[in-house]
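Checklist before submission:
- one chain only
- standard amino acids only
- sequence pasted in full

Submission:
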Amino acid sequence: MIEASQTGSEKGYLLRYFGAGMVNAATGLGTIALLTALNANPVISNIIGFSIGMLFSFTLAKFFVFKKRNNTQIQIKRYALSFALAYGLNILVLLLIKDRMHDAIAQTISITTYVVVMYILMRHYIFKKST
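Returned file contents:
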């Protein structure tokens, strides 16, 4: 459990981000894995999985991870821009490596790119202290 002294610390943010990510993983990555197992196109699988996971992401980040209850309109705009950037990098990485390795490994690498970039943008742009 996260101690009260950690709620505004980097460790607290990372722990909550990880927890929220588990919810997204259960939905988004589960969808990607299922579609990949069914031999669906890796890019289409990724698009569908991220679309489903994204439904949970903003709300969990806003209210659970970063606990920012105000400035929702600004945060939604920043989130959309940040998501487009992080997701674009995710797809770029996937396209660059998908023919060089198993689809599941390529998906893992590309999704890791997204997770790291999105955390940095959420922490320092979308939900920074002034928003």
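Reviewer check: The two ends are 27 Å apart (CA to CA).
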